[in-house]
Design a protein that fits this description.
By secondary structure, the protein is of the alpha/beta class. It has two domains: 94 residues, Alpha-Beta Barrel (fumarase); 230 residues, Rossmann fold. It contains 13 helices and ten strands. Helix 2 links the parallel strand 1 and strand 2. Helix 5 crosses helix 12, helix 6 runs antiparallel to helix 7 and helix 7 runs parallel beside helix 9. The longest helix is centred in the middle third of the chain and has 25 residues. About 6% of the residues have low confidence.
């Protein structure tokens, strides 16, 4: 079997490899701007191969010669002779990146797209509800914190709708069953991405937008940031591609605030899988560590919208920390007023 690894893991060394005479690399996922610059300066090229097709790709290997580090097994350095290996160019010798090629029919300006979408829906900004999403790894307590925040907001006289992704609609729940079923073993990363976006598009169009237009506060368990963390950072799909897919699936709708709940990955994964694991929970510690790191990157890049909250031993303490991060959205409600109703 011959399977491509997540190429970004080698970004730190790729410029030096190109300078030393390597003319091309093959991997999967996004490459850094530094690698693109190195391609332009050295005339080298970056290829991508399809993940999850190692057996098929292995059939294109004519010969394999051990070069070094035999003790590393599958991680040993080998010289392969390949014939007919299907790859595509992600960065050409001029530094052009596939994920950053513009297309006249695709808008990369989320603010313009979202504003037009909401305008087309006759949304009155004065009456528009608040949209808050909860993110984080498996077992961090998102559903619990959504229930606690919803109860406090309702006690303050605020109408709340709680949703989850994937799901929230008849179509979405069917997609959720397929995505999380441990027996769904042949689903490729790209198909997985598109299924999440299909569920999201249905939920946004059928439920979220109408609720917001009626002034309802919507609390959603997962949204676009989960797709970026799971399918982008952990699966290794091109982050620009994932961003475009999120733009389409969300109809350009961004949350007013996003809460990322954080807990030790091993601890949270143990909680989530104590009674069995779904398809994503079963991916293992390394995968979920990449998810955790992905959420941290997302928060760092959009600190105004995305707020990180460390989970406390007592769920009520976590709830207070969550409210501290959303209280500015509800000027008529205070933590003390709502706590009286707990």
């Amino acid at each position: 079997a011959v399977g491509p690894t997540t190429a970004s893991r080698m970004d730190f060394a790729t410029p030096q490899l190109f300078e030393a005479g390597i003319v091309a690399t093959i991997g999967k996922g996004r490459r850094s701007d530094e690698v693109a610059t190195a391609c332009r300066e050295t005339g080298s090229v970056c290829f991508s191969a399809v993940g999850g097709a190692a057996a098929f790709l292995g059939s294109k290997a004519v010969s394999s010669e051990l070069i070094a580090w035999d003790d590393l097994g599958t991680e040993a350095l080998r010289k392969l002779e390949l014939d007919g290996l299907p790859v595509f160019v992600t960065i050409d010798s001029k530094g052009n990146q596939l994920g950053k090629i513009s297309h006249p029919n695709i808008s990369s300006n989320w603010d313009v797209f979202a504003a037009k979408r909401l305008s087309d829906s006759n949304t009155n900004s004065a009456d528009k509800g608040i949209f808050i999403t909860f993110e984080g790894g498996e077992g961090v307590g998102k559903s619990t914190q959504i229930k606690l925040l919803a109860a406090r907001l309702e006690a303050a006289g605020i109408e709340v709708l709680c949703l989850r992704e994937p799901g929230g609609t008849t179509i979405g729940e069917s997609i959720r069953t397929l995505l999380l079923d441990p027996n769904t073993i042949e689903l490729g990363s790209m198909s997985e991405l598109l299924l999440y976006e299909a569920s999201r598009a249905q939920l946004t169009e059928e439920v979220i937008l109408p609720a917001l237009q009626q002034g309802v506060t919507v609390l959603c368990d997962r949204y676009i940031d989960s797709t970026t963390a799971y399918q982008g950072y952990a699966r290794g799909l091109n982050l620009d591609l994932v961003a475009c897919a999120n733009l389409l699936g969300s109809n350009g709708l961004l949350p007013d605030r996003t809460i990322v709940l954080e807990l030790d990955v091993g601890v949270s994964l143990g909680k989530a899988t104590k009674d069995g694991a779904d398809r994503l929970e079963a991916e293992g510690l390394e995968f979920h560590t990449l998810v955790h790191q992905g959420f941290a990157q997302i928060a760092a890049q959009d600190a105004a919208r995305v707020r990180r909250v460390q989970c406390q031993e007592l769920k009520q303490d976590t709830a207070m920390a969550v409210f501290d991060q959303v209280s500015d959205l509800f000027p008529s409600a205070t933590a003390s007023d709502m706590l009286e109703n707990d």
